[in-house]
Specification:
The structure is a single chain. The protein is an alpha+beta fold. The chain has eleven helices and four strands. Strand 2 and strand 3 form a beta hairpin. The longest helix is centred in the N-terminal third of the chain and has 34 residues, at 86-119.
Length: 311
């Protein structure tokens, strides 16, 4: 299994490597913590270990692909033919598997070269390094402390900590999603929508982000946007990735089916839109028929924004 060692000039730890790689594609964390970061694709597995002064990158072909797309189908064909060319099909299957493996091994060095370019950063100067490291430590501490407050539903304190981390450059889908949920809970749904927009830009295949943004849009009266986000949440929920698996398992542990729940919310939003259309139709035909306070869409929180200016 080919591997290379890259100087860890940025002094990245586990989270630093993950945050950096997240800018370049979809990455996941090995559940058993055997290695730091793993990039699962249909043909190649890349593992990255942060080991103090160096970062080790290994690449290996995905043998399962060879069996699924090569040997197993050909063996079924060989069995079906049963003597009528079956041996030839089996030989072709074995040849395909060996050829695929040889081809992937030739390309693994290119994969390692690309990873080396992504992970190699210029060594900072001494003064800049000290200041940068200090900022990263403060930002990381702000995120960790904010996450603790978030878990304890202390949303105002969590937002203050997340603000510090984000202003120091700590940005990813997780922190924007958590701050957005806190802001929504505090009544600042317009700000929450801004954060969910940024979180989705980092992680466009996270179904939970769309569902949270749909709730905030509903709170500010944007039911059309709410419906669109719920439709997107249902579509994205079908994508198999670590984040979506986690939210599906969470829903299942509570006795719910994630997609069924989203569909129920979508039906309710569509019903509210229909009632709003009926209300507007009555108002056009007979102005003043309904009480002026009868408003199915607008929210008291529609104009709520924080006074503090954050990034």
């Amino acid at each position: 299994m080919p591997s290379i060692a890259i100087p860890n000039s940025a002094k990245w730890d586990f989270d630093g490597v993950f945050a950096h790689l997240s800018k370049f594609g979809r990455w996941g964390i090995d559940p058993k913590k055997r290695f730091v970061i793993a990039n699962w694709s249909w043909h190649t597995v890349v593992r990255i270990y942060a080991k103090g002064e160096t970062i080790e990158v290994t690449a290996s072909p995905r043998f399962r692909t060879m069996f699924v797309f090569g040997l197993i189908p050909m063996c079924f064909i060989a069995s079906a033919l049963n003597g009528h060319g079956g041996l030839v099909a089996l030989e072709v299957a074995i040849g395909f598997g060996i050829g695929w493996l040889f081809w992937r091994m030739l390309l693994l060095s290119n994969t390692l070269d690309r990873m080396a370019k992504i992970l190699t950063v210029p060594a900072p100067t001494t003064a800049a390094s000290s200041e940068s490291n200090q900022s990263r430590l403060v930002a990381r501490r702000g995120f960790d402390l904010g996450t603790e407050f978030f878990a304890n539903k202390q949303h105002q304190e969590a937002v203050a900590c997340f603000d510090i981390a984000i202003n120091l450059g700590f940005e990813d889908a997780d922190i924007y999603g958590k701050r957005g949920l806190c802001l929504s809970s505090l009544g600042f749904d317009l700000d929450a929508i801004d954060d969910f927009d940024k979180a989705i830009a980092f992680d466009p295949e996270n179904t939970h982000l769309y569902s949270m943004r749909s709730a905030s849009k509903s709170n500010v009266g944007d039911l059309h946007g709410c419906v669109t986000d719920l439709q997107e949440a249902i579509r994205v929920a079908e994508i198999d990735n670590l984040g979506n698996r986690a939210i599906r398992e969470l829903a299942k542990s509570r006795g719910n089916n994630l997609i069924v729940t989203y569909q129920l919310w979508l039906d309710m939003a569509n019903m509210t839109l229909e009632r709003q259309a009926n209300y507007e139709s009555i108002e056009r035909e007979s102005p003043g028929t309904l009480p002026p306070t009868h408003d199915l869409v607008s929210s008291r929180r529609a104009a709520a924004r924080r006074r503090t200016q954050t990034k």
